[in-house]
Write a structure and sequence with these properties.
two-stranded antiparallel ribbon, NUDIX_hydrolase_CS (chains A, B), homodimer, alpha+beta, 4 helices, WH_DNA-bd_sf (chains A, B), DNA-binding, 224 residues, 27% strand, 7-stranded mixed beta sheet, Arc Repressor Mutant, subunit A, Nucleoside Triphosphate Pyrophosphohydrolase, NUDIX domain-containing protein (chains A, B)
DNA sequence: TCCTTTTCTCGTCATCATGACGATAATCCA
DNA sequence: TGGATTATCGTCATGATGACGAGAAAAGGA
């Protein structure tokens, strides 16, 4: 039995919250095609490598860490025959959510790496569409899961968690209602007992991510 | 630049509601590997073919129709190095939802085709996991979209729509509350003006699928 | 024709989640 | 010591939901 030959890549939508907005990790391409243009980080899947393994490897190569507190999940696959001028390449896109923390962004393959606010960025290949799908996935997942904590360090305040929602959704949220929701939804967050020190204002209690897989009831955004 | 060589397939989780339960279309494999075992329908992506096109082609080959009222979306991709003994094969799984209507299920490639209630079925390859992911996707999408109508003919009653929910979720739903919800949620369904005739009981008004992409507010199941 | 059965459709009520917003608590800083 | 700032708790009206009652409109049988 004969069948067409493909190459398979993984591409990463690496998101974080920096400076109060949702940002994505981009690399400047160091080889053809699209040499010199901005693109999502990614690369070919190796001969004996599972898909999630390839995604984690690329993430480690591009960001230096996939540490705890992060999150990695598959978005979708893209296989238009014309999407890569080198030939028939199917890419499996992954979504990674990371806290802002020390992220060197010193790429191995790529000439440069940079955080950029999400939006219409004019990326190489079909990466604008992949980015849009990844961002929408992240926005949607924040509604139904405690995943916003993946953008935060292991211990965080309710206010920090709220600012993640505000950055990802691009909306302002009432702090008092959000506090009630976060602390009353089972499995959303769990208190550590500790509090912040040295910050202005009243000290805030510190929390960790809760054990729930889904929020019940969910935390719906107003926009849609 | 050299890179590993892959084959790419599409596999289909074709779901319908028959006899009050959620059922999946299976085929008995007519060639190695797993000859004679039950599997999801699918096949290799052709050399010049887009992924959704390949999925639609396979669906047409296996079921005879992808007609209006149906729905097709990508689930995810599966690429474990050992998932196919023939070599390195990545499969892109698609979810298809169809009304029960005349579905011949006379396969072209496959020896036999059959509807089976979803569950632990002992399928070939990693198809049990793909099926589980597809079923969970369908269950979840019913909460947030008017997609249940994809299981119904173009015009349907509220009761028929409710029975779709009950079959897919495996729960019983109060007919009066469901009626209120379906008719009061904007874009869920739209009345045709016609009614059923010849059925026992009071005639029911007929509806079409609404234009909304998402249900606001959603229709949440109790289980999770 | 009349009654029963069946199913659809509309209402009622208590409860819960939510948005809007007031008020208090606990820290830092001048 | 007295703001300024931020966290936390409370109140209230509104809307969505689950549980359930009751009427409406057909088919079918005596």
């Amino acid at each position: 039995m004969s069948y067409p030959v493909f190459a398979v890549t993984v591409d990463l939508v690496v998101l974080t919250v920096r400076e109060g907005e949702l940002q994505v990790l981009l690399v400047r391409r160091g080889c053809e095609p699209f040499l010199g243009e901005w693109a999502l980080p990614g690369g070919f899947v190796l001969a004996d490598e599972d898909l999630p393994t390839a995604a984690r490897r690329e993430l480690a190569e591009e960001t230096g860490l996939d540490g705890p507190g992060g999150h990695l999940e598959q978005i979708a696959s893209y296989g238009d025959p014309d999407r890569d001028p080198r030939g028939r390449v199917v890419t499996v896109a992954y979504l990674a959510l990371l806290p802002d923390l020390p992220t060197p962004t010193a790429g191995t393959d790529a000439a440069e790496a940079e955080w950029r606010p999400v939006g219409e960025l004019g990326l190489a290949f079909d990466h604008d569409r992949i980015l849009a799908d990844g961002v929408e996935r992240a926005r949607s997942k924040l509604e139904y899961t405690p995943l916003a904590a993946a953008f935060c360090p292991p211990e965080f305040t309710i206010a920090a968690l709220r600012q993640v929602y505000e950055a990802v959704w691009g909306e302002t949220i009432d702090p008092r209602n959000f506090h009630r929701k976060a602390t009353s939804t089972p499995g959303f967050v769990s208190a550590t007992g500790a509090s912040t020190e040295g910050e202005p204002g009243r000290p805030a209690r510190l929390f960790r991510r809760g054990e729930a897989a889904v929020l019940n009831p969910p935390l719906l955004r107003r926009g849609a």
